[in-house]
Amino acid sequence: xxxxxxxxxxxxxxxxxxFTYAIRNIVAEAQKVEAAGKRVRYLNxxxxxxxxxxxxxxxxxxxxxxxxxxxxNYGPSPGIPVAREAVAAxxxxxxxxxxxxxxxxxxxxxxxxxxxxxxxxxxxxxVLVPMPTYPLxxxxxxxxxxxxxxxxxxxxxxxxxxxxxxxTLVTPDTRALVVIDPNNPTGAVYPNDTRxxxxxxxEDHGLVILADEVYGDxxxxxxxxxxGLLDPDAAIISFSSLSKAYxxxxxxxxxxxxxxxxxxxxxxxxxxxxxxxxLCSTVPMQYAIAEALTGNRSHQIAFRRDLKARANLTIxxxxxxxGVTCVEPTAAFYAMPRVALPxxxxxxxxxxxxxxxxxxxxVYGSGFGLPAEEGFLRIVFLAPLDELSEIYDLMAGFxxxxxx
Length: 404
Ligand SMILES: Cc1ncc(COP(=O)(O)O)c(C=O)c1O
Description:
Layout: H1 14-18, H2 22-35, E1 41-42, H3 57-68, H4 81-93, E2 103-106, H5 108-120, E3 126-131, H6 136-143, E4 147-154, E5 160-161, H7 163-167, E6 174-180, H8 192-204, E7 208-212, E8 236-241, E9 254-258, H9 265-277, H10 283-294, H11 298-319, E10 324-325, E11 334-335, E12 338-339, H12 347-358, E13 360-361, E14 363-364, E15 377-380, H13 385-403
Parallel strand pairs: 1-13, 3-4, 3-6, 6-7, 7-8
Antiparallel strand pairs: 2-9, 4-5, 8-9, 10-12, 11-15, 14-15
Helix pairs in contact: 3-10, 4-10, 5-6, 5-9, 11-13, 12-13
The protein binds pyridoxal-5'-phosphate (PLP).
């Protein structure tokens, strides 16, 4: 028999309240709109497969073969040797020499980020995170009882990091600098002088750089070199995955590569120790890594071309909307327009009103750490051109009314 006492709600941990991830949180709102009978166009998640881009068949074959060949056992916790060797060879070829022993295969870039932050940052530790940011960084830091200190990316300078602002944020508790390049949510690629300045800043303050390079192959004009190319001895940990440039986000397969600097030897050991606790990442999918990095990449040429065409349409259509401005992206599949909001309105008000009125779902800039009154939002422009064009018609009509 249940007494009133046993029926009490089971309490949840305080950390859950600190953990926010706007990209998925907004979906609950969209589902309400859908339940009311309206078609929703989901432009919130950067998943190319959801928009019809196909995983290259040779990668699917590699995974299927691995399963049929019986590779369904647990693997080594840092990854199977052939995958670690392929990742090390890829970075080394691109000018950032790493050895297979310093590569860890992870459940996407996401797990790499969580492992690295867990290995490096104590309770109360601080990490310099871009604003706008990819929200996983702040979510994981909140879970670790650590602090994200936001450094501004400047929309008036093509979303490049504001180095003067960055310099004001360092304290004795600062542990790491997150650099997302090519960037989500802005679509920016950093020029070498900016990259050198970030390296010099991290060096001066003894910080490790967490280089999120998951869009490295998706510069519209070709692959973007890893940050480590500019200084192979810098304290850099690079992250990437099969999710974006290899069109397999659902496989949850990625990697982290820890630079050769002996200053990072303890970090290598710490990451491996933590990785032991989750046994391994998905084993059959790891067999696709070598195929991806050493095999045919012609799909990327077509993908980059398609992305550039979508970016061009996006920019032209957004800039034609009165009250809307947008920095042109040069990589990946995101644009970060700004709507000149009436006083008192927030980015979330605009995004929710757009959703309810048109079914178009974007993510508000404050979900990426920006001030809500600045009126930024992120658009994922992976839909086919004709559908994007319809979406921008809807957005233009709605925005004209909203701002009038
Ligand atoms: C900047 C950035 N980092 C990491 C991730 C996570 O990717 P993965 O699927 O490799 O975990 C994403 C996904 O959108 C991203 O945009």
